Amino acid sequence: MTHDIHIIGGGLAGSEAAWQLAEAGHRVRLSEMRGGGEETPAHRTDGLAELVCSNSFRSDDAESNAVGLLHQELRTLGSLIMREADRHRVPAGSALAVDRDLFSASVTDAIAAHPNLDLVRERVDALPAGPAIIATGPLTGASLAGAIGDATGREALAFFDALAPIVHRESIDMEIAWFASRWDKGETKDYINCPMTKDEYLAFHAGLIAGEKSAFKEWEKDTPYFDGCMPIEVMAERGVDTLRYGPMKPVGLDDPKTGRWPYAVVQLRQDNAQATLWNIVGFQTKLKHAEQVRLFRTIPGLQNAEFARLGGLHRNTFIRSPELLDGTLRLKSLPNIRFAGQITGCEGYIESAAIGLLAGRFAAADLAGATIAPPPVTTALGALLGHITGGAEAATYQPMNVNFGLFPPVEGRKKADRKRVYTDRARAALADWINPPRPSPVLVPADSAEPVSA
Fold first, then answer.
1. Could you tell me if 307 and 240 lie in one domain?
2. What is the reported pTM?
3. Is the model's pLDDT at 130 over the cut of 80?
4. DSSP code string of 111-129
5. Considering 315, 340, 365, which residue would you say is the last residue of a domain?
6. Average pLDDT, whole number, for the chain?
């Protein structure tokens, strides 16, 4: 197959971009190094769109949550990632969580079966000369990262991203733990809760701080963490109560054995369709593996825990997108190249897919000799794109999840009403972007030379 465009990277962004282009009738070469003899520090399979951290796409509430609104917009635009996430969702209350293996397999199958897509297992070390989208994510190979650095004239920024442990359900002691919703919000009881007394919590907190951690390499020492994926031991270092106001918050969670809130709570969320695997929410960590097993088994209910995966740590890299990219994600110094996904500095699974979708649609328009305007900044897609391509100060640019703080503000409304105003405004703006309203026709009366609006 001859190709119209080359996409490098088969993660969420690359897979979505490839799908959008192929569905538009363009012939796509999608290069993914996993499966071609290459590995990364974080991935464990060669499947496309593999979820390496949590299995959650976060809130699916499109009425009052920016990420839920982004879900809805992607569904409206025919997102492959959202289609397969909906097909393989697992119980998680108001959140959209998926069976990670089934999800990745279904994305891989869809890409491999598309007649306009050519999936090639290969490592790419240089920027293509023709139309291309770079969606290599936070673990871009050294050679390609060097080529990007040569093209941009800037060093990539970097931060650490940490993985949470996954526990076998049968090893959780349900005589101690109990089911409830996330902080008792909603009617479904989709989370397993492990209670802690004050003494148990303080001992656990001390263990996090004292525990043996992965050593830093020399080039990693000045790399900042991303606040949205902070290792739990780093949070613990910020203060003795930081975890009790964060991932171990007990508010609203009545222990059925006491009828009272515990001093702290560890929550686990279902990780696969069979409900055999559960991940410890908010427990991203860089503790050594043996230390994780020892310390996490001091959590009541997890004293006999068997781990399907322990936590880990890997380095993420991203470019100074507000300085380097134009409003349609093209590299200003090489306009044949677009970037998509986490390498642009968006953070989160669904945000990566969203930028992949936009990059694919922008590229499809270019190939067809047309242009499309970026989505309005009042939409979730437009707000996220605006942050990446110019809404942030380049010198202090940091990864960002979608949130209402990226949207143009709503004035003169009660705080409780603003979120609904944001979402209503976004839906109207997206509808107009997809199908722009036609101007009223101009009529010229027979007895007048002056045109009038109909």
1. yes
2. 0.81
3. yes
4. HHH-TTEEEEE----S--S
5. 315
6. 89
Q: In what order do the strands lie in the sheet with 5-8?
A: 117-121, 28-32, 5-8, 132-134, 334-339, 330-331
DSSP per residue, 164-195: PPEEEGGGS-TTT-EEE-GGG-SS---EEEEE
Q: Is residue 60 in some structural domain?
A: yes
pLDDT digit string, tens, across residues 400-450: 889 998 898 887 777 668 889 999 999 999 999 999 877 766 555 555 555
The percentage of the chain sitting over the pLDDT mark of 70, rounded to a whole number, equals: 89
Cα 360 from Cα 22, distance rounded (Å): 9
The C-alpha atoms of residue 306 and residue 325 are separated, in whole angstroms, by 46
Please name the amino acid found at residue 323. Answer: E
What tokens appear for 238 in the block?
């910020």
Alpha-carbon dihedral 257, 258, 261, 264, rounded to 10 degrees: -70
**For position 411, which CATH number holds?**
3.50.50.60
> What distance, in Å, lies between the first and last C-alpha atoms of the chain?
51
Residue whose entry in the numeric block shows the structure tokens 């060669």: 46
Number of domains in the chain: 2
Residue by residue, DSSP assigns 29-66 as EEEE-BTTTB--SS--S--TT---S-SEEEE--TTT-H
pLDDT tens figures, 49-91: 999 878 999 999 999 899 999 999 999 999 999 999 999 999 9
Q: Are residues 22 and 53 in the same domain?
A: yes
292 shares a domain with 216 = yes
